[in-house]
Structures are given as structure tokens and as C-alpha cells.
Amino acid sequence: MILRAEFTTEPFEGEGEPPAHAVAARDALRTAGLEPDFGPLGTAIQGDRQTVLAALAEVLDVALGAGAARITLQVTAEESTEG
User: What is the pLDDT of residues 57-83, one digit of tens each?
Assistant: First the structure.
């Protein structure tokens, strides 16, 4: 099963450098072996179920620890076509 996840961390800090909580979330995903699509309004990833779920647990932990006050998350599951 492949999972696609999109999330935002808040508060937004306007233009300029991304907030520490967003950077911490991005870095946790990279440490988990995922390459996130990191943007000003959110982050998207995809991967196998086990990897994504473990990475998202870490994202929640590190983003909250780095100052996130809210994390909005959407996850979509798709059946894998690999045999």
C-alpha cells in the first residue's frame, strides 16, 4: 500500500525563511529516507505505508517540539501496483 500525505504546520510566519517547526518536519522526513515536496503552505510526501506512518509520527513530535501550535494532516491510501 502506498500512502500520500500532505500536512501544514502553524503558525505561519509570513515571507522569508520557513519557521523552525516546518524545517524540523522537513528534516525528519529526509532522515526517514523520504524526499518531501516542501512548500510555503505545506509539505507532501509519498511512500510505503510503514515508512510514511513512522515518519509522520516523528514529524508530529519534532514539529510540536519546535514550536508548532497546530498540524493539519491529510493521508490518502492507494493500493500498490508493484508485484
Answer: 999 999 999 999 999 999 999 987 765
